[in-house]
Amino acid sequence: MAQSIPDADPGRIAARLAELGVSLPEAAKPIANYVPAVITGDLLFVSGQVPMREGKIAYTGKLGAGVPIEMGQEAAQLCFINVLAQAFAALGSLDRVVRVVRLGGFIAAGPEFTQHAQVMNGASDMAVAVFDDAGRHARTTIGVPSLPGDAAVEVEAVFEIA
């Protein structure tokens, strides 16, 4: 179920998401002992999000072992959309985001895979598409042997907020 964004004044970021054809999903509930987002000072930390769609992980497996780079990029993009859903749930409006400070990407991959950065560009490109220059961010991308639910990608974020 998509989260509704008020029609009267959808806000700048909600309007941008609509232009991009992106509808925010309902923010996923935690599957373990953590909270999905924490605000401290002027920072919002969003816990890692997997490529969930309609309650199921949409992209599973390992890059370089059956999952092509293009699918990994789509997974990373979907992860960032799920990060935005968590941010929206925590803030009430994505217009409170001043900038995307940092993204962290975890790419499930075989030992020979070396194109982690290209996969993570799916999330980074979406951050810039949504927030323009305020979407340009620092980033860490690492390969891991597995992720929860056999997800292909997981993305976490730090936002500066007003």
UniProtKB/TrEMBL annotation:
Membrane-spanning ranges: none
The record's section on InterPro entries has: Endoribo_LPSP/chorism_mut-like, RutC-like_sf
Q: Which domain of life is it from?
A: Bacteria
A Pfam family matched by this chain, by name? YjgF_endoribonc
Where's the Endoribonuclease L-PSP/chorismate mutase-like domain?
15-151
Record's protein name: RidA family protein
Taxonomic classification: Bacteria, Pseudomonadati, Pseudomonadota, Alphaproteobacteria, Acetobacterales
